[in-house]
Design a protein that fits this description.
This protein is mainly alpha-helical and 297 residues long. The protein has one domain. The chain contains 15 helices and no strands. It starts with a helix and ends with a helix.
Length: 297
């Protein structure tokens, strides 16, 4: 079940990222990031209330540590989103995207150290395989791997920061969700998401209010373009949270790299774009790595 939910999350994330990128001509980096929170929070709270009302188990008991974990995860995701959008604004945005994909290995390390959910040996080997394949696929055509590794521009730095932030957020969501006891994964995931989105709306909203007060008005003036971003953000975030309530963050995020592989396959099958042999090899490495993490991690 967690595999299907993760696959759904990758679809939502792909659509949201594309829609969010289209907002950049009208919104600053911070404002474009804030759209997913200010519009996503009411939707996630409503979904949470409906699911709790529908569930026979009712509202789970929320321990104190839950709030500290959610605050930390929420702030990490805010920083990661801003860092990722910043990397897109740099000239070498592709390099930033590649470095953001280091999230795959970072989430595995954080899961082992923070939550105590290490992968087995073949799981670690598979994660490294996924990372190598994803980096190669996301790299600009003809760019040697050595050049990417030694890249030191701000896009690369922002990408690494984004990867770390998303990894910490994923581990935090898993940790917060499992602290809610034995309630269904759907309930735990949506409660975690609603709490996290609300905190992110407040924290990022204070920053926007101080630094860019005019941006909030722009977000609502362009509601026809910003609302879909909020809706897709909730769909993606809810799917990630539910999947991580079922399985470890390392496995879920590794499988989530199907997003890049699917994009590659669609461009080949539907758009008839030509690709180099090395890209097919990289796709095969990603697929083998994902299967390894899923089956043996």
């Amino acid at each position: 079940m967690w595999i299907a939910v993760t696959f759904l999350a990758t679809i939502f994330q792909t659509l949201r990222t594309a829609a969010q990128a289209r907002l950049r001509p009208d919104l600053s980096v911070n404002a474009a990031s804030y759209v997913r929170y200010i519009l996503g929070a009411p939707i996630s709270i409503t979904a949470c209330a409906v699911v709790i009302w529908w569930s026979a188990d009712g509202m789970p008991t929320i321990p104190t540590r839950f709030w500290f974990i959610v605050i930390g995860a929420g702030v990490a995701q805010i920083i990661a989103t801003i860092a990722l959008l910043t990397s897109f604004d740099r000239r070498d945005y592709a390099i930033g995207t590649v470095y953001a994909k280091t999230e795959v290995i970072q989430v595995a390390v954080f899961s082992a150290v923070i939550v105590g959910e290490p992968l087995r040996l073949w799981g670690w080997i598979s994660v490294v395989a996924v990372l190598i394949g994803v980096v190669k696929l996301a790299s600009p055509p003809g760019t040697p791997l050595r050049q990417i590794v030694h890249q030191r521009d701000r896009a690369a730095q922002a990408g690494v920061l984004a990867g770390a932030g998303f990894a910490l957020a994923s581990v935090g969501i898993r940790w917060a969700s499992t602290s809610l006891g034995d309630h269904p994964a759907l309930v735990r995931g949506l409660v975690t998401l609603a709490a996290m989105n609300t905190i992110q709306t407040i924290v990022n909203g204070i920053w926007i209010r101080i630094r860019e007060p005019e941006s909030i008005g722009i977000i609502f003036r362009h509601w026809k373009r910003t609302l879909p971003v909020g809706a897709m953000s909730v769909g993606g975030s809810a799917s990630w949270a539910i999947a991580m309530s079922m399985e470890t963050a390392a496995k879920v995020r590794s499988l989530g790299q199907l997003e890049l592989l699917l994009t590659f396959l669609v461009s080949r099958a539907w758009l008839h774009q030509r690709h180099q042999r090395s890209e097919f090899v990289a796709s095969g490495i990603v697929l083998i790595g994902i299967l390894g993490v899923t089956l043996f991690g």
